[in-house]
Design a protein that fits this description.
- 26% of the residues lie in helices and 18% in strands.
- It has 188 residues and is α+β, with helices and mostly antiparallel strands.
- Strands 1, 2, 3, 4, 5, 6 and 7 form a 7-stranded antiparallel β-sheet that branches.
- A hairpin with a 7-residue loop joins strand 2 and strand 3.
- The longest helix has 12 residues.
Length: 188
């Protein structure tokens, strides 16, 4: 009968010590097929170019809680028409990175949300600029929308829903074409 030699009592303890030191389990290595989970990979797919989809996306990502405010502006900074007397502006990660890197232009997927407040700090509207590759080349590919506080689209005096290639937004922001249609802060 073959006998397995008895291991000294310290060997099983050594194995337990090594396993405990390694944390007991090992994370799988990151490969191109299995990227690490990050805020970016956990984010929902970008919205399509409708005001309703943009609003739903903003609610889903919780832009107020999860996106940065415009650097140096804080909450309820002084604004001007047509946006309101007080403003709070949020940048998604792509827009913030382009702004802080002074990239010259915002990349596709960049979203800027401007909350427009009345002088008494009542939210009057939420305006959005969303950069979508190929969407609107004549206006640097910006999609614009203006929402009432409940998320419904605001309308022009003629009854046009304020989403997409909004003439008033395009014309006004076109004055800042060299800064990728952005009024606040320089991108270069």
């Amino acid at each position: 009968m073959n006998r397995i030699p008895a291991l000294p009592i310290c060997c099983p303890l050594l194995v337990l010590f090594v396993l405990a030191a390694c944390g007991g389990r090992q994370e799988p290595a990151e490969t191109p097929e299995t990227p690490a989970t990050t805020m970016e990979t956990a984010m929902p797919a970008p919205p399509d170019t409708t005001g309703a989809a943009v609003w739903a996306y903003l609610q889903e990502v919780g832009y107020r809680d999860n996106w940065a405010r415009w650097p140096g502006k804080g909450e309820l900074y002084a604004g001007q028409e047509p946006h309101g007397m007080l403003l709070t502006t949020y940048l998604n990660p792509a827009a913030r990175e382009a702004l802080t890197a002074r990239a010259g232009t915002m990349p596709p997927g960049a979203i800027i949300v401007k909350e427009n407040y009345m002088p008494d700090s009542t939210l009057a509207a939420v305006t959005v600029m969303y950069k979508v590759a190929g969407y609107n080349p004549a206006h640097n590919d910006w999609f614009f929308s203006k929402h009432l506080p409940d998320g419904t689209l605001d309308r022009s005096p003629e009854g046009m829903a304020l989403e997409g290639r909004v003439p008033g937004c395009q014309n006004c922001h076109g004055g800042r074409k060299a800064n990728d249609y952005i009024f606040t802060g320089a991108l270069r």
